[in-house]
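Fold this sequence, please.
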Amino acid sequence: MDIEKIVKSLTDTLNNDGGLLESFKEDPAATVKKLVNMDLDSETLKAIVTVVKTKLLGDKTDGLMDALGGLLGK
């Protein structure tokens, strides 16, 4: 599972679809589950939601990788 590609795909999709963005604002976890269409454990889901929120806010700090909780093996 390539978390970076998933996050990029999600942010691109949400930035280009106002309806999905509103859905994400209301229930981020459910929206991510729907868009990813994969069975994610709660830790991974929470990490992806955190990173997507951060990217959508435009925060490009080094904290992005910390939010992934080592899922990328770095």
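The mean pLDDT is 85. Helices lie at 3-16, 18-26, 28-36, 42-56, 63-67.
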